[in-house]
Amino acid sequence: HENMYKHINIEQIPDESSIHRQARINQFEVPQNGNQLLQILGDTKDPIYPIYRTGTTQDIYVTCCTTLFDLDQKQITVYY
Fold first, then answer.
1. Which DSSP string do the residues of the chain spell out, in sequence order?
2. Nearest to 80 by CA among 67, 68, 65, 61
3. From the centroid of its chain, how far is CA 1?
4. Which pTM was predicted?
5. Taking the alpha carbons of 72, 40, 2, 58 in that order, is the dihedral positive or negative?
6. Among residues 12, 22, 72, 71, which one has the least CA distance to residue 51?
7. 6-41 pLDDT, tens per residue?
8. Cα 77 from Cα 35, distance rounded (Å)
9. Under a CB-based contact definition with an 8 Å cutoff, are residues 15 and 3 in contact?
């Protein structure tokens, strides 16, 4: 989750948490399956603005859950 457009050229107010999370996402290879995607979504390596938000002192928000929709298997998995 991030709150800035990547492919639409419009004026935006820079969002520090989105910039941090996108920079971390850019360090990963493009995921090839659901497990690789979940590894990215669950990442907490950035100590200030992790992808999986943990309520750090600067980033007071917390990720309540991550949901994987597998349309091929007709399955929804919720991680919290």
1. ---S-SSS-------HHHHHHHHHHTTSPPP-SHHHHHHHHT---SSSS-SS-B--SS---B---EEEEETTTTEEEEE-
2. 65
3. 4
4. 0.81
5. positive
6. 22
7. 888 899 888 898 999 999 999 999 999 999 999 999
8. 11
9. yes
